[in-house]
Design brief:
The structure is a single chain. The radius of gyration is 15 Å and the shape is globular. A 6-stranded antiparallel β-sheet has the order 2-1-3-4-5-6. The protein contains 8 helices and 6 strands, in the order H-E-H-H-H-E-H-H-H-E-E-E-E-H. The chain has one domain (about 5-159). Helix content is about 35%, strand content about 20%. The chain has helices spanning about 5-15, 30-35, 40-45, 55-60, 75-80, 80-85, 90-95, 145-159, and strands at about 20-25, 60-70, 110-115, 115-120, 125-130, 135-140. The chain is α+β, with helices and mostly antiparallel strands and about 160 residues long. A hairpin with an 8-residue loop joins strand 5 and strand 6.
Length: about 160
C-alpha cells in the first residue's frame, strides 16, 4: 500500500516517480462533474467550465495527489495510468484517503510544471492560461502496451 505517489518509484523501479517539482492534480467530485468533458466543451459552456487559471482556482476543483520528478507531459500521462503505477491496486488507500475516485490520469486532471499548468484533454493537453484557458495544445503520445507490460514485468520480478 502506498502512503504517497512517490512510493511507486521503489515499487515499480522507476525514478520518474521520485519526489520532484512536477505536481499532479486529480479532479475532486466537483471537478469530475465540471472538468471531465474537455477544454473545447468548457469553452462552449463557460457557465459549467472549470478551466483554472491559478492554483487557487485549481484547489476548488482538484486535489494535489503528489509531486514527481518527470517533466515530459506524455511520459507523465503514461506513468499516471493505474496499470503503470498501481498495477496491483497499491494506490487504492492513497486515492480514497485523499477523497479521490480514480487511479488513472483522466481528461480534466492537471499537470503543473513550474509556472505552467496543463490540463489533460480529450486529445493531448491544454495549457491553462489567463482568460479562462489558452488554446496552446500539446499532442499526446499514449504509452504502448509493450512499455506498460515491460514495467509490469520488472515489478513482478522484484516480488
Amino acid at each position: 500500500m502506498y502512503t504517497s505517489l512517490n512510493d511507486a518509484a521503489k515499487n515499480i523501479g522507476n525514478s520518474s516517480y521520485a519526489k520532484g517539482a512536477t505536481r499532479i492534480w486529480y479532479m475532486n467530485e466537483e471537478g469530475w462533474q465540471r472538468c471531465s468533458l474537455g477544454a473545447e466543451f468548457m469553452r462552449k459552456h463557460p457557465e459549467l467550465a472549470c478551466l483554472p487559471t491559478s492554483e487557487a482556482d485549481l484547489k476548488r476543483t482538484h486535489i494535489l495527489l503528489g509531486s514527481i520528478a518527470e517533466k515530459d507531459l506524455n511520459a507523465i500521462y503514461g506513468l499516471m495510468q493505474g496499470e503503470a503505477w498501481s498495477p496491483m491496486g497499491e494506490a487504492r488507500g492513497l486515492i480514497s484517503g485523499k477523497g479521490l475516485h480514480h487511479t488513472s490520469m483522466s481528461v480534466g486532471d492537471v499537470i503543473q510544471i513550474g509556472g505552467s499548468m496543463w490540463m489533460v484533454d480529450r486529445s493531448g493537453f491544454e495549457k491553462l492560461t489567463g482568460n479562462g484557458g489558452g488554446k496552446k495544445r500539446h499532442a499526446a503520445k499514449r504509452p504502448s502496451v509493450g512499455a506498460l507490460a515491460a514495467d509490469l514485468g520488472r515489478m513482478l520480478k522484484k516480488r
